[in-house]
Amino acid sequence: MKRTMKNIAILFVAASTQFSCDDPKGVALDGAEKVVSGVMKTSMKVQIERALKAKYAVGFEVIDSYFEKGLNLYVFTAAETNNPQIIFEGNFDERQKDVKKQITSDGYINQRFSYEAEDYFSSLLDKKYGEAIGASVYSRFEHRFGERVPSLDEYLKNRMEKSTIRSNRYFFEIPKNPDDPMVAEIQEMLRGLHKKYGNNYSLYVGFWPPGFLEGKELKKLTFGFEATTMEDADNLLNVMQYMERVFFVKVVNGSIGSLTPQQIFDLIKPYNKKGPTQMIEI
Known about the structure:
This protein is α+β, with helices and mostly antiparallel strands. Helices cover 30% and strands 22% of the residues.
């Protein structure tokens, strides 16, 4: 399954100037300068990869890195070597001699957990409606430097308070009544999520009219699963303006056993294009 990035809580400074190792002077490079620049960039990627491996005890590949003047740090994008779908961002301080202090922040743990949550969520779905899904995990997992991150299932055994799991599912049809198969699928999704996570999880389901996908390629639409670039943000705005209905519930130590198809259908509300979507807590 193709993996897309989620929103990652990394500090960025708006409207700041990016310094790229490809162009350290802000001018075009040629000849020997390009060779030196390439060596600098390769060296920095190697340093970041070494620091990440020391921190998490698994291998990583740095996809990109640049110096952010506003932060006075390197900003990098990396992927786990054995699971290249797990892509995350972070900040690196090359001035620190202590390897434990070089990675100042990164989104690896939440992205790792989110990848596993998305795999599980995908297994619950009827694929006939089109594949547009996502899952994100916010955890307060306290990682010890040099140790591997446990699997999400292992973490859930001793899940920390306020950790949350959110699943997104998008349909390209509008359910007409409580007997609609889409309502039945929502019920099955809730049962599967409740069985796995027990409490403190949410399900967000969006509905677009059937004609929305006409002339569009589903794989090129990000639906907010990947909103770390301006292109993704623009894509999200373009997509959301056409959504018609939304189902958004959060379960916190509640029960869904008595939730009927009629109640689920009644919780599918018109999408509010002028403000935040109301979340119903169960």
